[in-house]
Amino acid sequence: MDIATLKTFCSSDPSRNRLSNPWSEGDYSYATNGYLMVRVDRFPDIPNGKPVTLERMEEYFNVVPETPLLIIKYKKQQCGVCEGSGRISRCPECNGLGMVTFDNAYNNYEVDCKTCDGEGSLVGGKEKCQECNGEGKIIDKSQTVDLDGVQFMVATLEPIFKLPNVKIFVRKECAPATFSFDGGMGIVMPMKV
């Protein structure tokens, strides 16, 4: 994992500003958004800091059960931007702005583009859809997934889906789950039901 990838686990929420950058402590560098935390070998360029108390978290990092849950099943839904095609093109009428402007001697008018319904893009074309990364399907982030009887929000788990060789370990209801991946470990908070 590089520093740029580690930063993707930091919070982008302005109310959690203290979690907006990774920090180092001891032999490790950490990043958290408040719902999940990752720990990797220390990066020399990441300064010491302590935005959260790690003592309680370390117990989850240090005990990994024998049997991981290797399969995470979640549903994908059709991408609303490209309507499942994976491809889009910039609207020729509004030039991708979603709005068109009209001027006359009396007024200026700005209205939603009728060609693209104010979206700025049209289904099909040569460009890869950025919303679904060209797959035509996106993860339904509002759904939950059951891991060994414990509920997790898909939106909370989504960042770890991209990590190499992820294994998730669930302990008990309402306790954070531990995950390991090539290059580090992490913990993720369950959903209270």
Write the layout of secondary structure elements.
Layout: H1 3-7, E1 23-25, E2 28-32, E3 36-41, H2 55-62, E4 76-78, E5 87-90, E6 99-103, E7 108-112, E8 121-123, E9 127-128, E10 137-139, E11 144-147, E12 150-153, H3 154-161, E13 167-169, E14 177-181, E15 184-188
Considering the chains and any ligands shown, give keywords for the structure.
2 domains, 3 helices, 11% helix, 3-stranded antiparallel β-sheet, 193 residues, Chaperone, DNAj Protein, Chain A, single chain, mainly beta
In brief:
Helices cover 11% and strands 31% of the residues. The chain has 193 residues and is mainly beta.
Mean pLDDT: 82
Q: Which structural class is indicated by helix and strand composition?
A: mainly beta
Element-by-element helix/strand order: HEEEHEEEEEEEEEHEEE
Tally of distinct domains: 2
Major beta sheet, strand line-up:
1-2-3-15-14-13
Helical content class: 10-25%
* Low-confidence regions: none
The total beta strand count reads 15
Please report the number of helical segments.
3
Rg over alpha carbons: 22 Å
Quote the distance from N terminus to C terminus: 33 Å
Coarse shape: elongated
Beta strand %: 25-35%
Task: Report the major sheet.
Answer: 6 strands, antiparallel
